[in-house]
Amino acid sequence: MSVRLDPEVMVGWFDQVARDLPWRRPDCGAWGVLVSEIMLQQTPVNRVQPIWLEWMERWPTPSALAAASQGDVVRAWGKLGYPRRALRLHAAATAITTDHNDIVPSDVDTLLSLPGIGEYTARAVAAFAYGQRCPVVDTNVRRVVARAVHGAGDAGPPSTKRDLADVEVLLPKEDSFAARYSAALMELGAIVCVARTPRCADCPVFDTCAWQHAGRPAYAGPAKAVQKFAGTDRQVRGRLLDVLRDAPGPVTRAQLDAAWSDPGQRDRCLDSLLVDGLIEQTPNGLFSLPGDH
DNA sequence: AATACGTGGCG
DNA sequence: TCGCCAAGTAT
């Protein structure tokens, strides 16, 4: 059988066509890589890039971010989405400052112990910031492996153990080469082997792709759950937080009430934001971003 | 294992 | 227009 996703081919292709992203520059340290990985969770590159540049200038080290207020961090997160990530990154920066001498850990298990860092991000930091040989599995890699190796139209439901094992066997021996290979796998899924309309004519491993050989069968697995947004609590929470991000300081209950008409849903979402620590109530009954008063 | 969690671009 | 999709994590 032909070699699937050949490392020499993949890395050669990556060196030629990879996007010039700021967190891939040689002078970008582990902190920059970590910040980028958190911001990129479920969020497109183009939206992340300008915010990442602002953050690196403003908070060039974990301790610099840790010294900021939660409110400043949430406001600087802007509209990247899933703002709990901002709070968790701030908490991770605090832990790195106090427990790890202001140095982003390189060990996967240590990384996993930090807030907001899961199976993907821990391995992404170990590989991309520290050049380690460890499988890095995100949605792009799952799709590339599903097609090129398994001949399926798309990846089935995630299974951490199986997904990691799938990539482990592909990984070349040497550390830094394996890390570059991991980046190449992700890049292929991001710009060529994309979900909707794959650009197979531009694919460096077209001739060994199991999906091509199988005649490009359609995805046969269980239907993926479609996420609604309009009218959901997520939208309402977003509206509420948007009021606070745009305000210079604490706001009144009436200002928050204007953000959504349904009182029951509004109250429920405000409560959940208070529980999450994304909003605080001030002593005089106003509402603010955490620490923003 | 399913579900909650933001936001906006694109076909 | 509107559903799909984007470098996931926590519970």
UniProtKB/TrEMBL annotation:
It catalyses: Hydrolyzes free adenine bases from 7,8-dihydro-8-oxoguanine:adenine mismatched double-stranded DNA, leaving an apurinic site. Coiled coil: none annotated. Belongs to the Nth/MutY family. Keywords: DNA damage, DNA repair, Glycosidase, Hydrolase, Iron, Iron-sulfur, Metal-binding. This is Adenine DNA glycosylase. It comes from Allokutzneria oryzae. Residues 39-191 form the HhH-GPD domain. InterPro entries: DNA_glycosylase, HhH-GPD_domain, HhH_base_excis_C, HhH_motif, MIG/MutY. Its EC number is 3.2.2.31. Its cofactor is [4Fe-4S] cluster. The keyword DNA damage applies. It holds the Pfam family HHH. It is an enzyme of class 3 (hydrolase).
